[in-house]
Specification:
This protein is mostly helical. The protein is built from one helix and no strands. Keywords: Coiled coil.
Length: 93
């Protein structure tokens, strides 16, 4: 009977030792996973910032293009007014 108790106690000790050995591995795996997640989050943030910067540049280019078109239209309108005034003065002659 004592032999059985000793064997059982020995098995429990072995199991407890295995569990203790398992914990650091699990901690390391969790730590690695958390580190990977942090790195991925940093990369996502960088990509998002690049995307935002690109979008801002596109908007700025579009604004500049619209300003240019507005100036072109204004020049055309002024030319048309000038031509209309010339035509009117020629008709009066």
């Amino acid at each position: 009977m004592k032999t059985h108790e000793i064997e059982t106690a020995g098995q429990r000790l072995m199991q407890a030792a295995e569990k203790r050995d398992d914990k650091p591995q699990k901690c390391r795996r969790l730590s690695t996973l958390l580190q990977n997640e942090r790195e991925e989050a940093v990369e996502r943030r960088k990509l998002e910032e690049q995307k935002i910067n690109l979008h801002q540049k596109e908007l700025q280019l579009r604004r500049e293009e619209l300003d240019h078109q507005r100036r072109q239209h204004e020049l055309i309108r002024e030319q048309m007014q000038h031509q209309a005034a010339q035509t009117e003065s020629l008709l009066k002659l």
